[in-house]
Fold each of these.
Amino acid sequence: MNHTESYINELVDCNRGSLAVAVKKTINDIVPQYISNFSYRKHIVSMLMGNVQSGKTSHIFGLIAAAADEGFNIFVLLTTDNTLLQEQTFKRALADLDTFCVCGENDYIRFQTNALKKPVLIVLKKNIHVLKQWKNNFSSTNFCIGNPLFIVDDEADAASPNTKVNQKDVSAINRILNAIKKTSTSSIYLQVTGTPQSLLLQTKIAGWKPAFIYYFEPGSGYLGGNFFFFEENCPHIIPTDNDESKEILVNDEFPENGLKQALLMHLVSSAHLFLNGQTVSNFVVHPSVKVSQHQKFANKIGEYLNELNLYIDEDCTIETLQQVYENLKSTKPDISSFDEIHAYVKKALEDDEINVLVINSKASYEENARYETGINIVVGGNSLGRGITFPMLQTIYYCRVSKNPQADTMWQHSRMFGYDRDPGLVRVFMPPLLIKRFSEINKTNNSIIEQIKKLQNVDDIKMYYPKGLRPTRKNVIDNSHLNMIVGGVSYFPFYPTNNNIEELDRMLAAFSENDGYSVNLKLIYQLLQTVDSENGDWNKKAYLSFLNSYISEVPSRQGILIVRRGRDIAKGTGTLLSPNDRDLVSRITDQVSLTMYKVTGTKGWNGNQLWIPNIKFPDGIVFYDVV
């Protein structure tokens, strides 16, 4: 039995048959095209993208097993600089990849003694001291230089990109990862992430932009962005006041607010789950990035639980619990009876069975990471992000509002995504501003995924976000190569040229001079392909790419086409549209508009007629491109 069969059998034996089918598809799609024909002479960067908490680790292990069957025998699996996560991944690898020699950070002797008798997998966190030590280990081992490395960087957009690119320097983690690759004459570096923004915006010259990307679909039962944020007024999302998190900490009492409602939701939903055989139910509270506030929130929650214990049989408490119960019943019709749930909540409070845990950089993991069983309320900040998985996470209170929000960071905080949830009981509490931002991020994520599935060239994949929301942190994008196209601004070439004016005449013949036609964006795409500029001031490639991103998301998406003929405009003029047309275009705020002017050619065009394009993307949106 080969390594792939052994791993797939392991999944099936653990009642993960549907996951085994998905992993086999990933293997069959990637291995023949990108691994079987590996040259053993190059260092290749690639990307595996999956939704946040959609089972990336299982796909990683499947690809590692399949690559071992193709002759690779030295694998490195990188996690974020998080001891708990590294240990979880190491233990999981030991259990799932039993045909491998699996090594932890301190297992150099095991690695050396194995001497490639079995393929070896080394699980390391992205800590500079750990990486330096293993770089030296590889360099001192003779069999490393002649064998390709297969490096899997889980959460590759965290810590790995060069954070000093705009200082013309190289950050420590980025430098040592390059050095590890060079301990061998060849390597495959597989970036794995659910938030590829910073990696897609890398330049080719930097050496970290993927040569190919593969996206795997989540399995059945996955609750992701489209479950929560695809449509307005999702019943599983409950808005809170925008400033609630600040008010909670300055108020000595525990007034009516979203956090109080969320706590009651958690108790009611947990009661149903435990009455029906569950052994764990989790509630995550993400109030702030500030560690100092986490314990204060935990204390507030503890105070309210004590208060609730005292007044659980009071009429006002029962009435409030009934309101929460009815809300949950609207999406969970078969919820247990209210009397059963009230009795269970009362007993859990009396027996002190509700655990309030704090997870952050100052709290002890050993004391606070016990969320695998029981009814738990977990309070924290950044530590609740990448890689940490909470089983049966049913309730989320997220009120962290950043002054300079970044799409990838926010999306990684989406711990509500995953499989082992009861969808009828899931509730997310957040301010309206964050609901809007998450919806916007989900929209762009869907666009990126569709582009990955449809476009052959990684360079053609583009992204756009509303003004005020950046795709990623500034320090990992080379500003000298970043091109931003702002919606609401008209772009046109100063020195236009037409590839085929007769073809343009035919394409536009049916359109008369009116206030604009609603047309498929694919027609606008075709029209833009026929125009260019003499001196490169017209960024046609970027405009076409961004149109592609729109078309990939919604193939039938419409734009506005405005056609004007016989315009007597001078060459090199600083303006193009007439006052009336400028006013007309300014009123088109939520669609792509393309205005095509046909000039007479009598003023500086050598008497030649030609078409001049003027394109404007929707207001309030910024498109990002790397040149």
Note: The chain is about 40% helix and 20% strand.
Amino acid sequence: MNRAENLALLKEEAFDILIIGGGATGLGAAVDGAARGYKVALVEGADFAKGTSSKSTKLVHGGVRYLQNGDISLVIEALRERGLLCQNAPHLVKNLSFVIPSYDWWNSPFYGVGLKIYDLMAGKLGLGPSEMISLEETLKHIPNVNQEGLRGGVLYHDGQFDDARLSISLAQTASKNDAVLCNYAKVVGLLKEEAEVVGAKVQDALSNDVFEVRAKVIINCTGVFADDVLKMDNPEAKATIRPSQGVHIVLDKSFLPGDKAIMVPQTTDGRVLFAVPWHDVVIVGTTDTPLEQRDLDPIAQEDEIKFILDNAGMYMSKKPTKADILSVFAGLRPLAASESGSDSTKEVSRHHKVLVSPSGLISVLGGKWTTYRKMGEDAIDNALVVGALPPRKCQTENMPIHGYEVAPDWTDPLHVYGSFRKKIRKRIEKNKEQSLSDKFPLYPSMIRWAVKKEMAMTLEDVLARRTRAILFDAKETRKIAPEVARLMAQYLAKDARWITEELAKFHAFSDAYVVK
């Protein structure tokens, strides 16, 4: 992907479909539309997956909680999509075993029966059977579990992935199918002719240049910011999104040795809590805090961090404290507003909705990462009707995602590059490179790859999304940032002033990831 070339194409050409938003939903729609042979453009105001799509629990799951809430259709859809994603991106999505520790005699049978239903719903795309396990087996799988009153547990399977890396792979998949994608290209207005939307005014956030992009259909895939685009179309439009903040903390592996995750089925606020091994750290979360304000970089609140520590501590013999937190991150769920007006965001369905405005603007609302492909398919199906495009069937159900590689070595930190990891490894070895950090792998060749192949334009792009350094250890990432900026400047042909500005911006950005 080359940003300069794509920017020129956006200014020169007209498209069948213009997608606003480069998160999971927008990228899924771009892949679907391009795979069907339509002329697709996508613009993202910041970086790909800058918002919610890089701040998930890193799980591809049907949703055990949704089953408990009786949202059967969502669970069936999500389980099917989970299976397809494991099939289409085996280098980024893997089978992960979860253990639900049981402290009451009825817990294991209760969840055991429910998870057998979960297994049946997955059908042929299931990842493995659930089973009730003994006290001894539970301790073997999750040795740091609180043993007081422990009776045993239930083991089940779900999927795990690297959200930002999947986003970049989806962008590359769309690009390979001739979609034109551009980050740091912000929509500042919509173009209309005879009350119909025919394009958008776009501002290059790096140069401030404003230009027009015209298309037969415009799709709004901006997540928690969907209402901003809807109000560009109609200033009187009602709010459609209810943001909910989810916070996660990152701990070292000593808090969850082994390769099994913990699922706590009932926290003090009625949600579930996960402790998940991911790369070489442990992610623990999440919260559910209704918010009015929306921000690309939401900040974890003290009470949210305390909630996670307190609830995790109830199930761990080695209890985490604030001093143990390597990083903390917050994301906003773009929940489609409920017609009931309920104040409880945990009760709001994760089903997505497709809204078509009188002007022809298509908006995709709500949803969850696991169902991104179906959301993209539904968006394009609606675009065919609105734009009177020639009908073509969806191609993404069995479509390999960029980097597709079967049976990757999950212990290799380069596995996220899939079939391209050998090229990067070869360059690392040829140049005899050393990792810039002793705490996590980050080689100069990874930085060069991000800049040259993955449209990384800023220091944050590299350290937060092309690599996941800021999540592995926020303080360590700030420490190595100057050297990363120097290397980026070399690859991008930037000067000392650029380095200074990038370091200042990154320091302000990363402050939210460091627990004081």
Note: The first strand starts at residue 14 and ends at 20.
